[in-house]
Please model this.
Amino acid sequence: ARFLLAEASHAVRDLQGARKEYERAYDLGYNRDETSLRLSELMQESGENKAFIDKFSEYQSPNAAVQSEILAQVGRARATLGETEAARRDFQKALSINPNEKLAKIGLIRLQAAGGDPKGALKAIDQIIEQSPDYALAWIGRAELMRTFSDVSGSISAMERAAQLKPTDLTLQANLASMYLNSGRPEAADKAIEALRSDLARVESKVDA
Model:
């Protein structure tokens, strides 16, 4: 029950409430790996990168997929703080545990782009999209790269695909609406905002139920 309450709070962007409920679920013995994965996502969404690193950098799981994903999350947090080489080591270690860890691959691609090779990064991210066309984070990465090339249309197109794949991600939907506004497409922005309101109302109704 605590975990489900945390999920509901997370969905309506009550991050503080969600964190408390995830931690309570963890303390009560709910699936340790699942709870840790969700808590790690939430802490990064909240911008608690340093706290997240302190809490999860030594996390151990017998499940290779979980271990690699959390390690990749740690790498992403380090990258956000500008700890590039430490982040690179985390991504590489995650891939050594699980060669299919897409989050680590995306992390290395972002470092590649930031290091001055956006064309190589775009090629690499397109390979991930070809292999995993329903992986929203890859489309978000492509949107970021398109902005690097001043390709507004390409950036919006990629973000639209990400939003289609994660329709309940309210932050993603809001970012898309902002992109529409900034590109001079107020009608599309209004439509996206209305959809965002509908999504929020639907999530809130589930919480009330």
